[in-house]
Amino acid sequence: MDRCVVLVDAGYLLGAAASLLAGEPARSRITVDHAALIQGLRQRAGADTERPLLRIYWFDGAPDRVPQPEHRRLRVMPRVTVRLGALTRSDGRWAQKGVDAAMHAELTELARNRACSDIVLVTGDGDLLPGLMSAKEHGVAVHLWAVQAADGDYNQSEDLVAEADERRVLDRTWITRAVRAKEIGGPCAPPPAPRPEIAAILSAPLPESGAAAAAAAAASAEPAEHTHEHSGANGIVRPPAGTERPAAAGAATAPGGPAHRPAAGRPGARTLAAAACLVLGVGLIGGAAAGSWLTDEAAGATPDAAATFARGRDVWHSTPVDTLFPRTVDGFGAGPGGADRTWSRIAVAPDGGCAGAYDPKLAEALARAGCVRLLRATYVDATRSSVITVGAQITKADQPGMTALNTRFSTGNLGARTDLMPLPYAARDTPARDFGRAQRVSWTVRVLTDIPVVVYAVSGFADGRPFDRPQPAEAATRPGATTAPAESGLGHDAKGLADRIGTDFRKAAGGTPRTTKASS
Predict the structure, then answer these.
(1) Bridge partners of residue 193, in order along the sequence
(2) DSSP string covering 206-273
């Protein structure tokens, strides 16, 4: 029948939206207008398939399969059916059980009964591949929708993308019509802009006792000194031109420490309480005017996007090399099966331009962003059996240009093409000395949009063996993958280091920190 059905994997849709808008896949970091979201799905499905909508199936997990408030709201909406799997907690993590099986069953049943001519899948789960192929065999057109990927990473199964008849991306503009990142509040949330009436109150003289309390509070709140160690004149250690120098062993010193936060007092009288509040208001407003004295992790404040983006172009010469490429990187839960990984830096390449640093196709794909500098370092895993080169290209593009490049990589599946693999940095006299084109096993390319940086990582075996079936990290880290890149952990190595280095560049620019996480 000439009508369409939409199957939504809520875990993928909302988790990917949270990653895009809030920097991490936790659904607790976003608020969702479910009515607006469903309306948007209905309109988009009709426009993309040119078929009337039969139904939207919403697949999600819930503890003991008991509907949560959002599920109750959804299931009373017209043409919406909610299907719930179990939500279980294991090793401190929540995991859905039975959701993919329910989607697979519904997909194949709809196709077998010829209930519709077009099916829209909003998912990234490769386990639905058999159901997708079965639907196609029954004459159903399958449309695969992706949420715009954060960091330029590919957030759908490569096999699903290859088999789908059509693929569309729900971009940031579309997502934000119904989804918003939560603003983190608390005692250190940014104060509102001062108003004249408030300024008049703040300028009023304090009672003598209140002034004394203010002086005592100011004395106890004196911030601790911070140190910031730089390596070389511009923060990047450079071997002489034309040479390759392995990095020395040793631990890096973290630049600075956490900001000091004054303890709140407990005045015993109403007057003292009012005075303390006035002093606190003066301090917060004055601190905002003079510059932030709290780190964004402590304050939970969102830095100004334009300023962060501008600073991102300068981090290569204003930040120590050990901050951007730490000597030791711990990837907690970043290995196969959630195992921990540790990587040690063995070489830092001389920074320079991008000419000759990429294979021709990748150079062409990145050319439109321009190149200010290319920074590279090579790491080895704890067993010294894997070598990984991670790079960061500082671009000339503005923020819309980076967003366009990110979208091009996502929609064109460029991150999964073997002719767009990055090149390794094979430093002499290190375990990576034989790490060349033929030795590449897994890779990832991330186009960041909050700072003008493209981060990539490419991994291989340290013994120099050639490999003729390289696999992108997104596919190699998928649960159940049994390929050599998956079982060796080389896909996890590439993904884990790209995650960490991208996080370090963001933090150096004053952006939102993001931690290394294994694929799920």
Answers:
(1) none
(2) PPHHHHHHHHHHHHHTPPPP-----SSTTS---PPTT--BPPPPSPPPPSS-PPP-PPPP--SSHHHH
Angle at 70 between CA 66 and CA 76, to 5 degrees: 90
Q: Write the DSSP assignment of 156-204 as a string of letters.
A: S-HHHHHH-SEEEEE-HHHHTTTEEEPPP-STTSPPPPP-HHHHHHHHS
Please choose, from the candidates 305, 283, 281, 308, the residue with its C-alpha nearest in 3D space to the C-alpha of residue 293: 283
Rounded to whole angstroms, what are the CA distances from 283 to 113, 191, 262, 286, 299?
Answer: 68, 10, 11, 5, 15
SS3 146: strand
Cα torsion through 250, 256, 258, 262, rounded to 10: 150
Q: Given the structure tokens 């890149």, which residue do they identify?
A: 485
506: enclosing H helix or E strand: helix 490-508
Length reported for the chain? 520
Interacting residues of 134 by C-beta distance below 8 A, sequence separation 6+: 107, 108, 111, 112
Cβ–Cβ under 8 Å, residues 458 and 424: yes
* Token pair in block for residue 380: 């080895």
CB atoms within 10 A of CB 25: 20
Question: Do residues 108 and 100 touch, judged by C-beta distance below 8 A?
Answer: no
The span from the CA of 458 to the CA of 472, in Å, is 9
C-alpha to C-alpha distance for 308 and 290, rounded to whole angstroms: 17
CA 157 to chain centre: 17
Two tokens, residue 3: 């009508």
d(CA 412, CA 359): 18
Distance CA 327, CA 248 (A): 9
| Tens digit of each residue's pLDDT (9 = 90 or more) over 94-114 | 778 889 889 999 999 999 989
Contact 255, 228 (CB under 8 A): yes
In terms of C-beta density within 10 A (0-12 exposed, 13-18 middle, 19 or more buried), how is residue 264 classed? Answer: exposed
Instruction: Quote the CA–CA distance of 290 and 143 in Å, as a whole number.
Output: 52
Give the pairing of strands 442-447 and 453-461. Answer: antiparallel
Quote the percentage of the chain above a pLDDT of 70: 74
Ordered alpha helix ranges (H), 266-412 = 270-290, 296-299, 305-312, 315-318, 321-324, 360-367, 399-411
pTM across the whole model: 0.47
| Chain CA centroid to CA 505, Å | 13
3-state secondary structure (DSSP) of residue 444: strand
The alpha carbon of residue 299 and the mean position of all alpha carbons in its chain are separated, in whole angstroms, by 20
Indicate the burial class of 349 (C-beta count within 10 angstroms; 0-12, 13-18, 19 or more).
Answer: buried
pLDDT tens string 283-339: 544 444 333 333 333 334 345 788 999 999 999 988 999 999 999 999 888 888 878
